[in-house]
Design goal:
Largest sheet: none
Order of helices and strands: H
Structural class: mainly alpha
Number of helices: 1
Oligomer: single chain
Helix content: over 70%
Radius of gyration: 34 Å
Strand content: under 5%
Length: about 80
């Protein structure tokens, strides 16, 4: 093969290699960014679940109170 042809091909390969390395760096950066976002979302979900559990406990307490009031009302009503 012609030396110029080999040099041209080598240059093309070097350029393609540099392009691929840059794309890999971009992908790694995006992966790190998404990992941070995922971590933040997991933290927010955990916090929301804790709040939901608290709200469920409060609502169950209200339900129990209402049931007690209804029972008392029924007793008074039937007297």
């Amino acid at each position: 093969m012609d030396k110029t042809f080999k040099n041209d091909e080598l240059e093309k390969l070097k350029i393609e290699n540099a392009r691929l390395l840059a794309a890999l760096e971009d992908a790694e950066y995006e992966c790190e960014r998404l990992e941070i976002i995922n971590s933040n979302l997991e933290r927010q979900l955990s916090e929301a679940n804790r709040e939901l559990e608290k709200n469920i406990e409060i609502l169950q307490g209200f339900k129990s109170d209402i049931e007690g009031l209804v029972s008392s009302f029924e007793k008074v009503k039937n007297e």
